Each structure stands twice: as structure tokens, then as C-alpha cells.
Amino acid sequence: MLTFPYRRIVSAVVDMIERMFDMIDGWVPENLDAVPPGCVLGATLDDIDLDRCSGYDRIRVLQAHQRMASHYAAQTYHTMNSVLDALDSNDIETDFVEQAAAAEIAAALRFTRRAANIEMTFALELKRRLPQVWDALCAGHIDVRRARVIVNTTLHLPIVGARDVVDLIIADATLLTTGQLAAKLRKLCIDVNPQDAQDRYEYAVADRRVVTEASDTGTASLLCLDPPPHRLAAGMNMSTTSPADFAVPAKPAPWTNSEPTWS
Q: 0.70 exceeded by the pTM?
């Protein structure tokens, strides 16, 4: 029979071994945040038992899974591009090739034609027009939502200007919400190409319109689309606004940059 000191030592060793085995399934590496998305991170996440993790570690695991999701999304869009490349030929018109690729994608992923066209277009924008965005998505630095905001907000710019804007914001995109990202992108687009911003403003004001639409509750909505900002502000107080106040002058008010500035 073991004496008292030895019993304490053995008991401590047994407790340590039991804790070690209890932590095997739930162990979260200290450098998890630094592991790039890929097979290593995937295997690591697959071995983690969330029920054995602390609340803090569960957040770290959530972030790691999001990086993996972004990585696989980037690979999905890369594969869509490769489908188009496989169908591409000098003897076939580009529009037909893109339609054929979208049809193949729709059949493979059970997409509608519209959904396949949207995803195919987005894949082309990522890989061919804004490769920096695809790189950030593949590395897990941004998610698909942020990637879509960047692509859609810079569509009106020429390729060189769009890439200049992306270079200015891609490092901060991880830290911004999609709303903050869109606001900052609009400001950068104006700074990069102010003449384009002026032309787009004047075109939108020229196309201003009032639209009514019914709702599923039996009510109706009155929508004022693309008015000059000062006219919309004047019309907000309906109780003191007369129909004459909504009259639009022959020449729209000068365009101004009213976007917020993010420090």
C-alpha cells in the first residue's frame, strides 16, 4: 500500500492524464487564428469538439470556420471560371460561351437560369476584373458578402479605376461592416473618378420618378426614386409641403458629395 506522499503524487498524475484526455477532442490550438484556410485548418477544425470548448474558443472556432467558408467559396467561383475556360474557343462568340457555361452550372448546382447567370457574372468579376478581391476571399480575409459589395459598388468604373479603389480599401475591408464598406467605397469611387460621379448623378436625376406599389397587407407605398437630395429633404414633411414644392426645375441642382467620411 502506498504511503501518503506517494498517493498524492499518483493522484496528481492520474488527474493530469484525465484532464489531458478530456481536452483532446476539444483542444483549440493557440495559433488557430494564424492558420491559413486549407486542408490543415479544415483537419484541425474537424477534430475540435465544441461542447468541450470555452466561450472564447468557440468564437475563435467560428471565425476559423468563416475563413474556411470564404476559401471554399473562392474555389467555387474559380471552378466556375474554369468551366467557362473549358468551353471557350476562338470559333465561338463570347456571349454564347458564357451562356453555355451558365447552363452547365445551373444543371450541376440546380440553379435557376437567373441565379446561374448572376453567379457566373460574379465569378468573372472576381477572377478577371478584380483579382485582388478573389485573393482576399480565398485567403479568408473577407467573406462573400463583402466581396459582393466591393464588386457591385465598383461596377461603373473602368477596370483600372476599380482596381485602384480596391487597392485602397482591401486591407480595411475585414474590419468594416458591409454598410461601412459600401459607404467608404462610394466615397473612394468619387475621389478616383469625380467626372464619372458627376455624370452618374445627372443621369440619375434626369431619370427621377415617382412609383406606387401595392403591399401584401392591402396598403400601398409611394416611392420617390433618384430625386436630388435637397428635394427629397423638402418633401419629408408632408404636412407642410404643397404639391408645388415637389416641382423639379429644368436644370437639376449641382451635384455634391454627401457621403460620410470614415476615418
A: yes
Question: Which whole number is the average pLDDT over 26-39?
Answer: 88
Digit-coded pLDDT (tens) for 213-234: 888 888 888 888 888 887 777 7
Q: Model confidence at 251, in pLDDT bands (50, 70, 90)?
A: low
Indicate whether 252 pLDDT > 70: no
**CA distance linking residue 194 with residue 257, whole number of Å:** 10
